Amino acid sequence: MDQSEKNVVYGTEDLLTGLCNSVTRVLNVATQSKIHYSAMVQRITKIGLKPDIGCFVLFDGGFSGLVVLNFSGPAAMEIYAKYMLTMGMPESELASAFTSDEVANILGELMNQIVGDFTGKIRRELQTNITQNQPKMLVLTKQVMLSVDTPLDRPEIRRVSFFTENNNIFYLELAIDRTEFIKLHDFDVSEVPDPDDLLEFQQANQGKSAPAAAAAGDDDSDELLRSLGM
Question: Whole-prediction pTM value?
């Protein structure tokens, strides 16, 4: 094996792909719908919050960066409504406008899950650690756009377009330090346990242990009766 085959390099586009996959993974499960992203990525020079709803998260550790999600009003309402209906809320109780605090809170919660999924993936696959702050959400008008300063020496900034099941659009923007991860040797990537599988396994074990415990109790009772000559 030559040196180029041995030293696998992970760069900005690999990190971006991992983040995009976290977005689709979390939102597809949360909304029980199909969300996908464009095969084309934009290289941009500024990162910022744009109408109708902007959300950002800073992360630091093995490398530093900033993640921004900019939702159009229809995209925000579609994701919010499908998530809440999946959670069992009656349609009559849903917020009626994307400017509602409830919509912003739900999108912030989902973004927190997205970045959490991404940081876990980084920990497993790149063997480094990054931490995140709490997402900040802002409802913006068409006249307001905010640039976000990043404390990065050599920032690389990318934008990816996402499409909901109803073809509404939102954007992911990522700014990170210029960095590369070079694999020095092979290692096993630990898998994430599925919470549903763990719950089923625990319930199955409890179901098996209950009859076993009952049988053991019967055996003890029989032994006691025999010792008493009964």
Answer: 0.77
Where in the chain are the domains? 8-182, 194-230
Does domain 8-182 fall under CATH 3.40.1550.10? My reply is yes
pLDDT for the residue numbered 154: 80
pLDDT of residue 141: 79
DSSP characters over the chain: --HHHHS-EE-HHHHHHHHHHHHHHHHHHHHTS--EEEEEEEE-S--EE-SSEEEEEEEEESS-EEEEEEE-HHHHHHHHHHHHHHTT--GGGS-SSTTSHHHHHHHHHHHHHHHHHHHHHHHHHS---EEE---EEEE--TT--EE-----SSEEEEEEEEE-TT--EEEEEEEEE---EE--S--PPPPPPPHHHHHHHHHHHHHHHHHHHHHHHHHHHHHHHHHTT-
pLDDT tens for each residue of 88-119: 999 999 999 999 999 999 999 999 999 999 99
